[in-house]
TrEMBL record:
Cofactor(s) required for function per UniProt: FAD
Organism in which the protein naturally occurs: Comamonas denitrificans
Gene3D superfamilies: 3.30.300.330, 3.30.465.10, 3.30.70.3450, Uridine Diphospho-n-acetylenolpyruvylglucosamine Reductase, domain 2 (3.30.43.10)
The protein's name: FAD-binding oxidoreductase
Residues involved in FAD binding: 129-135, 263-269
Amino acid sequence: MNATLSRRPLRRFWGWGAASEQLTQEETARISMMVQMLGGQITDRPEPQVGDFTLPAPRIAPPAALSAMFTDSPLDRLNHAMGKSYADLARMWLRQVPHVPDWVAYPDDEQAVIDILDWASRHNVAVIPYGGGSSVCGGVEAAVGASYAAAVSLDMERLNRVLEVDPTSRAARIQAGALGPELEAQLKPHGYTLRHYPQSFEFSTLGGWIVTRAGGHYATLMTHIDDLVESTRMVTPSGVCASRRLPASGAGPSQDRLVLGSEGTMGVVTEAWMRLQERPRFRANASVRFTDYKQGVQCVRALAQSGLYPSNCRLLDPMETVFSGVGDGTAAVLVLAFESADHPMNEWMRRALELVSSYGGSYDAESVERSMRDEGGEEHRSGTAGVWRQAFLRMPYWRDPAVGNGLIMDTFETATTWDKFEAFYKGVRKDVAQAVQQATGHPAFVSCRFTHIYPDGPAPYFTIAALGSAQGDVASALAAWREIKLAANEAVIKHGGTITHHHAVGRDHRPGYEQETPALYRQMLQAAKASVDPQGILNPGVLIDPRDRQVGITGALG
């Protein structure tokens, strides 16, 4: 029953992370407190098991020449049935998997990818490229509509090697199926790092980062994976499309820019040349408190426009400090950091702290000084910054049992300009809180932090925590979530933001994407897709519909 073709450690098919990972007693107590604080009750609901699900038989068989790469094992199909959004977790708790792939394929190399796409194109089989499966917007669900003969999830895990390192240009050729820890482990002996750390780092891949334009470690400058991509190689049903290695080019529209953000609809990225970093040796860190959140925002804007370019500049509003365990809700907290492989960052931090002080921020000067000493290299893992970092990494694990107890815990992220932010922040929080109250009958906790900042605006990341059902009824909570998600999508567009800064469009954000972009532009994308995917088999329903098929809004919101 639990057979799998995957060669990686077993992951929790119904939730986040490794199957072997368990919550600590402290974390369990924290979740219980959160459920009770929101007015819920701890339920004794058993965790989903593979045997709880009855899956339909595959509708079509792969050819004998490819069959060794294909599996229809229940565990593999469940692992690839959904991503890791709130709705995905809730449906797993309910044992509802409406769009399970018929098969999961594990290609060994690029030629196998070519062969699978060729077979799929000839037999009207939808193909969903799959990296780590960490999508939170319906990007890997096989909700492709009724016009396809079958659906196959194409898992790239076996293409996971660093193939080549160019120390002169400081770049590496890396296969797209490499998870974050896998590629970093292979770069480390060369003295390099990609230094791209999304929250999903442990369970997401280079290819997934590229096609979703993932946001990473840096709060300024190299905020998206876009900035680290030197060239790409993508297999399409019409052939292989590879760009030239160049530091920059002004030769027409960028080929790589069409690959970036394509979300598996144009082709399957098999490898990319990536710009590397040397590992940082010098750091400077500060945790700053602002009793006035508005002054904290003004300070971050000043930092963004100062030319100092901190590596970390994440402002947590008072409610977010409670969620992260770094405050009691009476003040905002700014997690501020600089890093370099070349030189001490003392002067950068000192100038930043002058700005902080001018906006009423307070900080522990001794802690800052320790972080700037040679022996203070681990200061960024302690104190407020360390607590926030640990909560950032562990929060997805906390969400699993919370959802099973009827809580709605979800996030959405966006970006807007500084001139709009004050009204944007108030308007989005108000609209979402009202939607939660209307859908559930219970109040919501809506918090915000900045994940990335730019001279012209921040990228706010909102967290919602609410009681979906006082009785722990996950079905009722899921129904309420659908109303709340649509309201959140509408709010960020209405108040002047983007539907996503770094989570991608997928299926769940398509309504907002279609409000944000002109129809003519989407027709251009459809035409480009038609040239490389004439049968429209690649991830149909994500981002856009194939030109000659009507898939529409499907998945959790369909």
